[in-house]
Amino acid sequence: MANPHDNLTLQMLDWLQQRPHSYSEVMEVWRSSCPRLAIWEDACADGLIASEEGASGRILVSEKGRRLLQSAGGRH
Which domain of life does the protein's organism represent (predicted)? Predict the structure, then answer.
């Protein structure tokens, strides 16, 4: 069985690619206080996320994140 954390990371990256999302929207959906499910924080640390400058900037999937999604076979 695949790691649930990895599956959630792929799900978040796929969600981010579907349409532009603001930082506040991403935090509302993906921020967690559970140290075992730090999907957002780990994706940022792993370089899978990019963002536009400013508080109202959009959150984007980085080139590294797009490669990960592609290697995983698309939507999750």
Answer: Bacteria
> Is-contact 75 37, C-beta < 8 A?
no
pTM: 0.81
The strand order across the sheet containing 21-22 reads: 21-22, 58-61, 49-51
Mean pLDDT of 16-43: 85
| 28-37 b/e (C-beta count within 10 Å ≥ 16 → b) | eebeeeeeee
pLDDT digits (tens, 9 = 90+) for 33-66: 777 778 888 999 999 999 887 656 789 999 999 9
Cα(30)–Cα(24) distance, integer angstroms: 10
Q: What residue ranges do the domains of the chain occupy?
A: 4-72
Q: What CATH architecture does domain 4-72 belong to?
A: Orthogonal Bundle (1.10)
